[in-house]
Design a protein that fits this description.
- The chain has about 375 residues and is α/β, with parallel strands linked by helices.
- The protein has helices at about 5-25, 35, 95-110, 125-135, 175-190, 260-270, 285-290, 305-310, 365-380, and strands spanning about 55-65, 70-80, 80-85, 115-120, 140-145, 200-210, 235, 250-255, 275-280, 295-300, 315-325, 330-335, 340-345, 345-350, 355.
- The protein has one domain (about 55-380): NAD(P)-binding Rossmann-like Domain (Rossmann fold, 3-Layer(aba) Sandwich), CATH 3.40.50.
- The protein is built from 9 helices and 15 strands.
- Strands 1, 6, 7, 8, 11, 12, 13, 14 and 15 form a 9-stranded mixed beta sheet that branches. It has a 6-stranded mixed beta sheet with strand order 2-3-10-4-5-9.
- α3 (about 95-110) runs parallel beside α4 (about 125-135), α3 (about 95-110) packs across α5 and α4 packs parallel to α6.
- The radius of gyration is 26 Å and the shape is elongated.
- The chain starts with a helix and ends with a helix.
Length: about 375
């Protein structure tokens, strides 16, 4: 037999043995992991949460700065100072930070000053300071605290640009135009951060209704506006396409923010580029008047209420319970009575929002209730 014919015959023989082996395996025991990945069930593998009350490692209450008319982004003259306001974002501060920062930067450009004071070091303040710095301004941040001791550290960290951003009954066409401008700018800016130490990434998000109810809008967080063409839309899943014991399940892809590393990354970059930061609490207009800069950008959130006598500004308290991290869980889910979001620093459970509450004391019973609600959902999952 020629050498070439020998190898061809051997190859065909090996193929025959291989197919026989596959045929015999098909009727025998399943390969390890097949049931875990739900290969034959039509839906994607969705790992379960490890839920128990002893896995709660941290509880926090954050106060969202809410104004019924929407975030205040405008210029005001007080004495010899030009104040550029950029605060009051409700639950949309993380999502709109770059967009409203850009609007504030445009107002700064109407002045002739190059040295700018900026009040506050939350996500809105850091984004605004960075944008000003990119436009050639010398920026000094004046702040009572720095991350992680700021309200922005107590957020869930998901793309939600219309979450309690205003009272829709008090919205105006002018505000909605500003919101759309800010929303588009922020979305595009966030896409530039993908791959940077996972400070921004995309993940799956599920809305699970155990029973059909009137509220099936899919927002799950007070989203009052919708801008199509940015993030993917919600899609209703058939029962064969998901493992939940529920009447209605919707899914979409959404952006998530790794809050601790995100804030440190941008604040450190600001300082590396020559920005300055001073720990100094601003309690009154007189404190602002004493600053050397003539243009002051106000990103103080709720801190602006007593300084500028903003009677419209109010807190909305939101509690979070943090569970031990699970690296294999990489999705967000909301159901009646609770939601969770996965981050590198833990699994965050939530579901509360109390208007006008200044109380930052966590309620343990509430955290345990969320664990119970999500435990019931997880134990009934198929697969």
């Amino acid at each position: 037999m020629k050498r070439r014919d020998f190898f061809m015959a051997a190859g065909l023989g090996g193929l025959a043995v291989g197919t026989q082996g596959l045929s015999s395996c098909a009727s025998g025991p399943k390969l390890y992991g097949e049931s875990n990945f739900n290969i034959n069930k039509g839906y994607q593998f969705i790992p379960k949460l490890k839920l128990s009350k002893d896995r709660i490692i941290k509880e926090t209450v954050g106060l969202r700065p809410f104004r019924p008319s929407g975030p205040r982004i405008e210029k005001e003259i007080i004495g010899n100072k030009t104040i550029i306001h950029n605060y009051g974002h409700g639950g949309s501060g993380w999502s709109l930070s770059w967009g409203t920062g850009n609007l504030a930067r445009n107002l700064v450009k109407e002045t002739s000053e190059k040295k700018i004071a900026l009040l506050g070091s939350g996500t809105v303040g850091i984004a605004t300071a960075t944008l000003l710095q990119e436009s050639g301004y010398e920026v000094t941040i004046y702040t009572k605290d720095v991350p992680p001791n700021v309200t922005s550290n107590l957020a869930t960290g998901t793309w939600s640009p219309a979450s309690r951003v205003c009272d829709k009954t008090k919205s105006t066409p002018e505000f909605e135009k500003k919101w759309e401008n800010a929303c588009r700018f922020s979305f595009n800016r966030m896409q530039m951060m993908l791959g940077l130490d996972d400070i921004v990434h995309w993940g799956d998000e599920y809305l699970v209704h155990r029973e059909i109810s009137n509220r099936t809008d899919g927002n799950g967080g007070g989203e009052i506006f919708h801008l199509p063409g940015l993030a993917p839309e919600w899609k209703e899943l058939s029962k064969k396409d998901h493992p939940f014991n529920a009447e209605l399940v919707r899914k979409r892809s959404n952006m998530l923010f790794n809050i601790p590393s995100y804030l440190n990354f941008h604040l450190n970059n600001f300082l590396l580029r020559g920005g300055k930061l001073k720990i100094q609490e601003i309690k009154s207009v007189e404190d602002i008047d004493a600053l050397p800069e003539k243009v002051v950008v106000n990103c103080m959130g709720l801190g602006a209420k007593p300084v500028f006598n903003d009677e419209e500004l109010m807190p909305i308290s939101g509690q979070l319970a943090c569970l031990v991290p699970q690296t294999e869980v990489n999705y967000k889910l909301a159901t009646k009575g609770a939601y969770f979001i996965t981050r590198k620093d833990g699994i965050y459970l939530g579901g509360s929002g109390i208007e006008g509450s200044w109380d930052t004391t966590p309620n343990r019973e509430l955290s345990e209730k969320w664990v119970d609600v999500l435990s019931d959902l997880m134990k009934d999952m198929k697969g």
